[in-house]
Amino acid sequence: MVSHCIQRVCVYCASSSLVDGEYKACAQSLGGLLARKGVTVVYGGGAIGLMGALADSALAERGRVTGIIPRFMQELEWAHGGLTELCVVDDMRQRKRLLIENVDAVVALPGGCGTLEELLEVITLKRLALYLNPIVLVNVRRYFDPLIQLFENAIGERFMDPRHRSMWSVVDSADDVLPAIETAPAWSAEARGFSAL
After folding, report:
1. Contacts of 139 (CB under 8 A, 6+ apart)
2. In degrees rounded to 5, what are phi and psi of residue 186?
3. Cα separation of 84 and 66, whole Å?
4. Which of 1, 53, 89, 99 is the right S-S partner for 27, CB 3.0 to 4.6 Å?
5. From CA 39, how far away is CA 65, in angstroms rounded?
6. Running DSSP on this structure, what letter comes out for residue 17?
7. Separation of alpha carbons 78 and 179, rounded Å
8. How many whole angstroms separate alpha carbon 50 and alpha carbon 13?
9. DSSP H helical segments within 3-144, as ranges?
10. Bridge partners of residue 67, in order along the sequence
């Protein structure tokens, strides 16, 4: 186990406003918690759904929030108007790259295909030792259980190495996020030695 200095955290989360209130409450709790700890929130820049809840709660606690949004989403007026910093980029690929650049950890809240795509990409990058920091899944309402089982199936069928389980942590609530980051197993370029089975 290693202790991580936590200054900037990327949070993947959904833009849907139709989901169960427990998801929104978790996003609000996480945003406020990170802000109170002096951690800058880096997220997709949206104003609604879990994205908006995360940003609003961090800002309400006088936290720093950086949004990274593609130009077409800004033109659709999906961007949050009150962020500390809003970075408008050309496309989704650039957005995903900048979301994890210079962050100390990635946290995934429940979300749809966009959130899942971002999460799977950063796990893939970690497998290849191109991203080395903690990844935490916040398993509200057991949302990520099917994905976790899929990873277990991938390991069981030898598409992944058992050591790949160490690439992510799973927690039940926002309160558990920072402890999970602080105690995440170290990951290094040596992981490339078992990235291909």
Report:
1. 145, 148, 170, 171, 172
2. -65, 150
3. 6
4. 53
5. 9
6. S
7. 32
8. 6
9. 21-36, 49-60, 71-75, 92-99, 113-127
10. 43, 86
**DSSP states along 36-66:** HTTPEEEE--BSSHHHHHHHHHHHHTT--EE
- Asked if residue 106 lies in contact with residue 10, where contact means CB atoms within 8 angstroms, the answer is yes
Q: Give the single-character DSSP code of 79.
A: B
Instruction: Give, in order, the Cα–Cα distances in Å from 20 to each of 47, 56, 88, 157, 164.
Output: 18, 18, 30, 34, 31
Residue 46 has pLDDT above 50, yes or no: yes
Tokens of 131: 């991203």
Domains assigned to the chain: 8-186 (3.40.50.450)
**pLDDT tens-digit profile of 127-142?**
999 999 999 999 999 9
Tokens of 53: 């809840």
**By three-state DSSP, how is residue 78 classified?**
coil
Cα-based angle 69, 74, 76 (whole degrees, multiple of 5): 130
Identify whether the C-beta of residue 6 lies closer than 8 Å to the C-beta of residue 181: yes
Strand partners, 137: 108, 170
Q: Pick from 65, 117, 115, 116: which is nearest to 86 by CA?
A: 65
